[in-house]
TrEMBL record:
It is a multi-pass membrane protein. Gene3D superfamilies: MetI-like (1.10.3720.10). It is found in: Cell membrane. InterPro entries: AA_ABC_transptr_permease_3TM, ArtM/GltK/GlnP/TcyL/YhdX-like, MetI-like, MetI-like_sf. The chain crosses the membrane at residues 15-37, 49-74, 80-100, 181-206. Signal peptide: none annotated. Keywords: Amino-acid transport, Cell membrane, Membrane, Transmembrane, Transmembrane helix, Transport. This is Amino acid ABC transporter permease.
């Protein structure tokens, strides 16, 4: 317990850093994932190509490489931002590809007749997607979206290697201070467990309220 009690502020700072990364990157991933999923099912071929390229590139690019591309590449184009914001962009864009595929799979579970009926009533693509298809698809994608955001929370540990304050990075300071590396990692693991269990609990509540009855 000494590792935790004597370094509670350090752990707290790292914990809050991971929470902030998770929340902001999750919001970005959900927005981009929704947009790319809409592109992938759009009737316009250029939008489908855009969505396919986005998903294919990001899903097959190592997250660490994406961090390097964002942190080292964007400043070359004059975009200089805090490291934490760069980390949010890298995490959010990477996870958005997986969110996109989860949403697309949910959209594909909605019978085609639903969309055809909406179009026969005079609805355009955007109205059909937002008012008819997505509300039904949302119910079936709650668990996989939750799992994807849990993975995002754990992937945020990579940000510590790029000068971003987060939970895993606290072990460096603790190691320099001479604390047991084993117990340092135990309390780090507890912190991640709290975050992931919280996300899981939120999505369990959502699934019970809105999910598809089994």
């Amino acid at each position: 317990m000494d590792v935790l009690t004597e370094n509670f502020s350090l752990y707290g700072k790292g914990f809050l850093g991971t929470v902030e990364l998770t929340v902001y990157a999750s919001a970005l991933a959900l927005v981009l994932g929704f947009l790319m999923a809409s592109c992938r099912v759009a009737p316009v071929s250029s939008l489908r190509v855009l969505g396919t390229v986005w998903v294919t590139v990001l899903r097959n690019t190592p997250l660490t490489l994406l961090f390097f591309a964002v942190l080292l590449g964007l400043p070359r184009f004059g975009l200089v931002l805090p490291f934490q914001l760069f980390a949010v962009i890298a995490l959010g864009c990477y996870t958005s590809a997986f969110i996109c595929e989860v949403l697309r799979s949910g959209i594909n579970t909605v019978p085609k007749g639903q969309g055809e009926a909406a179009r026969s009533l005079g609805m355009n693509f955007g109205q059909t997607l937002s008012s008819v298809v997505l509300p039904q698809a949302f119910r079936s994608v709650i668990p996989p979206v939750g799992s994807t955001l849990i993975a995002l929370a754990k992937n945020s540990a990579i940000a510590g290697a790029f000068s971003v304050t987060e939970l895993l990075g606290t072990y460096k300071t603790l190691n320099e201070l001479g604390y047991s590396i084993i117990w340092s990692f135990v309390w780090i693991a507890v912190g991640y467990l709290i975050i992931t269990l919280t996300i899981s609990a939120v999505f369990n509540v959502m699934e019970k309220r809105w999910g598809v009855a089994r």
